[in-house]
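Fig. S4 source data, part A: sequence.
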Amino acid sequence: MQLETFQMFCDLALTHSLTATARHLHLARKAARRQLALLEDEFKTELAANEFHLGVCFGIGFHQLPARLRRFQAAHPAARVTVSYATPAGVHAAVENMEADLGLTIHPQHRPGLVLDITRREPLALVCHPQHPVAARPAVRLRELAGQKFIGLRDTPHPAHLEKLPNHLRHRFEPVAECHNVEMVVRLVEIGDGVALLPLATVRNKVAQGALAAVPLTGGNYFQPQAVLHRQGRKLTPLMKAFIEFLKLPDIE
């Protein structure tokens, strides 16, 4: 065993934390993850079973993850879950590059070497300013929204719900502006610069405060999938498996 690997083994034995060990040894997470895999293979045991790193996209990370994570950690007091935030494309890259053990994102993409597990499908709503002409309606059909000033997310796949529209309508849903994260989309809608199709869970607090209106979509199944990603062949610890199953449970209002 090399000296660096032996030092890592000693640190893990003391801290039971890959994050703390990597920080102490000045290792990037990817390098620490590789050394950990070698140690676990040599000793046939999991050395950081109560810890994992989660890469999460901004929309879920800022609006839905905090409450879910509190509930999960209440049920698993010994668990250590570290979190980093990125765009959906960034979450995919973090898992591919071993910078995150698991990824949680919207707009999941099937890619070679990645395993994708859909955890939920969030219903979409038209999110708009409370004084928008559609805001007071109980529901709206998607095709009725053609020509609205849509605000979209940059570097995301074309939404599946728009693929079902006739060709002569589809171009009328092209965004007038695109943002790097959901926070900016919500902000532009809040000041009346446009509308957006977002999961109700993302804007529930803003709607309750009266800052935004959310109008359900009717006439079809319109939802935004969320998924957990991990590398193909990656051995998931019992804690990771428990977390994935936990994410499939409904939120407590």
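Fig. S4 source data, part B ends here. The two ends are 51 Å apart (CA to CA).
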